[in-house]
């Protein structure tokens, strides 16, 4: 990196500011007044939507170049991992099982 | 409810909720540290970045852009766009932080990530969670992130890639948290729509807008369907 340390610090400060603002503004503004019920209903669906939006490309698509791929080991492992989560509802157990199965597919495939 | 727990119980439960996040951050942080080192950023430099920014995907992009000699303005703009999704998460968390003081909120907001959001929302919804344990989750995840990026910068090349299937830790965690969030037909509908939208957007549009577009679109679709059904019942 050809950048001087002071310039690098300035960059980090600016990156930190634009990252912090969207994290802070909603909790600061929305926690001070009662929210309308429609907004609460809408926000209630946000976690499930965000999780699914994060997961789907990781399971179903290659990243470089971006392309649909229905044969990823990530997807193969997701099946039993999801069943285990439904059955046990154990977060730690699901993470460890997923890791183990993924490691296993790496050995086999 | 907040005062019924001892400090040590609070720490134990907070850290107990945070460990899958920390485990998942380990391979990501080490990978970032290795890349940063290759881009000419020293361990102090990457540690400071993890501390001041604390946003995984934005940091990967920033390191790649620094390596290719991008301008400060371009890197900051990319960071803003990638992290815009936190606006949604912060809004959803606000429902559980009613009337909390500005000092706590300022500290809490720093640690809102995809992972801490998913863990804390699941716990808050179960009813047995408070803002202090949520804050411990945020800060433990931050500590793990800073440490693993610095560790990657120091000794990353010694660790074999893909060891122990650890690359699957965050996917496994998200899968389980998704299961926890599926409370009925509207949530299932929203999840399916979001997955389809996300993949479509991921393939069609370069960049990271797919999370925000899919989440807003799917939550709105689920919301409208819910409204429609409720009205029909009346």
Any overview of this molecule?
- The complex is a heterodimer of chains A (109) and B (234).
- Chain A is mainly α and 109 residues long.
- Chain A has a domain at 34-108.
- Chain A is built from 5 helices and 2 strands.
- A two-stranded antiparallel sheet of chain A has the order 1-2.
- In chain A, helix 4 (73-88) packs antiparallel against helix 5 (91-108).
- Chain A is extended.
- In chain B, helix 1 (7-38) runs parallel beside helix 8.
- The relative contact order of chain B is 0.14.
- Chain B contains 11 helices and no strands.
- Chain B has helices spanning 7-38, 43-52, 56-67, 72-82, 86-94, 102-110, 114-126, 131-155, 169-181, 185-204, 209-233.
- The two termini of chain B are 36 Å apart.
- The radius of gyration of chain B is 19 Å and the shape is globular.
- Helix content of chain B is 76%, strand content 0%.
- With 234 residues, chain B is mainly alpha-helical.
- Chains A and B meet through helix 1, helix 2, helix 3, strand 2 and helix 4 of A and helix 1, helix 2, helix 3, helix 4 and helix 5 of B.
Task: List descriptors.
heterodimer; A: 109 residues; mainly alpha; two-stranded antiparallel sheet; 2 strands; 76% helix; extended; B: 234 residues; globular
What's the arrangement of secondary structure elements?
The complex is a heterodimer of chains A (109) and B (234).
Chain A: H1 5-30, H2 37-44, H3 46-60, E1 61-63, E2 66-68, H4 73-88, H5 91-108
Antiparallel strand pairs in A: 1-2
Helix pairs in contact in A: 4-5
Chain B: H1 7-38, H2 43-52, H3 56-67, H4 72-82, H5 86-94, H6 102-110, H7 114-126, H8 131-155, H9 169-181, H10 185-204, H11 209-233
Helix pairs in contact in B: 1-3, 1-8, 1-9, 2-8, 3-4, 5-7, 7-9, 10-11
